[in-house]
Amino acid sequence: MTDWDAIVVGAGPAGSALACRLRPHGRVLLLERDAAVAPASRRIGESLPGAARVLLQRMGAFERFLADGHAERGATVSAWDREEPVWFDHLRDPNGPGWHLDRARFDAGLRETAVAAGAVLIEDCGRLRVSRSADAWCVDVEAQGTQHRAPVLVDASGRGATVARQLGLARRSDDALICLYAHLPADADDEDQCTRICADRDGWWYSVRIPSGQRVLALHLDADDPALKTLRDPERFLAKAKRQPLLADALQSAVAVEVHARPAGSATLDVEALADTPPGFFAIGDAMLAFDPIASQGIFHALASAESAASAIERPSGNAASARKSYLDEMQSVHARYREHLHATYAGVVRYRHASFWVRRIEG
Ligand SMILES: Cc1cc2nc3c(=O)[nH]c(=O)nc-3n(C[C@H](O)[C@H](O)[C@H](O)COP(=O)(O)OP(=O)(O)OC[C@H]3O[C@@H](n4cnc5c(N)ncnc54)[C@H](O)[C@@H]3O)c2cc1C
Q1: Which residues contact 282 (CB under 8 A, 6 or more apart)?
Q2: InterPro entries under this entry (predicted)?
Q3: Which residues line ligand 1 (CB under 6 A)?
Q4: Most informative mutation of 32, 43, 266 for ligand 1 (most atoms within 8 A of CB)
């Protein structure tokens, strides 16, 4: 049995950020299911607002971040409430325009920063068995036959929330949104730096060029949309995108490539049940609250919730219960604000308000 101050499950942005923050003072074990960071062609989620700078600085990860060559975020052009495009320029944001990330490099950079700070990382960890003994959390890494114990256990395993589920916590999905996406090959003539967003009758699209030069093309639909299956066909997917004038412009010489699918709807853990778990258990990032991609808030939330959880974990042990309660209160208010903004965003699409995708989100 090895003793730690904290065991963090999942080395995505949330788990790695928390390990960076806790490591200067504590012994941190980071357990990751995958053998390495997934390749860029599989990762989705690339827009990071300028406000993330201060969080990355606090984690000691900003210098590495700057060296990794992420691109400055250009304007957002959207055909949302009407067909004519509207421009929004992030340059006016007091925190700066933000970035379009090389997502694989971003995730790997945070993970490596955590390890350089002294966190111990076990990749390819296989199945984990979580239990509680006396006043500590125990994690068996079954594939290795090793056992680990800590007063703090953190679920940073993303949408799967695997630790929370093992503890019997329910996860509420607010809607069954699916994202179909493709990484289109780099086109030397494509110098566009904008994020293009547009509403469609049965969903919405975004497209952005990432630092590798590839272009991400993504469509968000209901999980029960009958067209979902046929749109996995790369030619049909691209042809549908080209019917949107705002996208057609950027897709002139695009070549159809494999289309992936991922769940993308809002989901949250039951906060009241979480508050009743034994002390020292936290969930952060998508495991705590997963956002609809229209909010473009998931990576920022991963970093911010790691920062808030770190502050709660570092509080003197006499205040541990109230510190966790403050953390959960903060997550509840983030969720309430997000729901309000999300509803207003979808309600803006008056032109399709009678189509079922939009009715579900505006009236549901
Ligand atoms: C279509 C789409 C577009 C998006 N666009 C944006 C965007 O533009 N901007 C933005 O900010 N966000 C965006 N997001 C959201 C963003 O990608 C996520 O919010 C972010 O990745 C959450 O980070 P995380 O660390 O909580 O979870 P993840 O990134 O999912 O990381 C979880 C980690 O835990 C590991 N893991 C899982 N299970 C286990 C286990 N049992 N044991 C050990 N390890 C485990 C996984 O391998 C992974 O490494 C988008 C999401 C989608 C679906």
Answers
A1: 152, 153, 154, 155, 309, 312, 313, 324, 327
A2: FAD/NAD-bd_sf, Flavin-dep_Halogenase_NPB, Flavin_halogenase
A3: 9-15, 31-34, 44-48, 125, 128, 156-158, 160, 162, 179, 218, 262, 264, 285-287, 293, 296-300, 302
A4: 32
- The residue segments making up the domain with residue 163 are 2-71+96-172+267-345
pLDDT band at 174 (very low <50, low <70, confident <90, very high): confident
Distance 219 CA to ligand 1 centre (A): 18
Instruction: Report how far ligand 1's centroid is from the alpha carbon of 60 (Å).
Output: 21
Is residue 218 situated within a structural domain?
no
CATH number, domain of 328, equals 3.50.50.60
pLDDT tens sequence across 298-324? 999 999 999 999 999 998 777 888 999
Q: Which residues contact 38 (CB under 8 A, 6 or more apart)?
A: 104, 107
pLDDT digit string, tens, across residues 247-295:
998 998 899 999 999 999 999 999 999 999 999 999 999 999 999 999 9
Check if the beta carbon of residue 360 is closer than 8 Å to that of residue 221. no
* Residue to mutate (ligand 1; options 21, 44, 173, 210; most atoms within 8 A of CB): 44
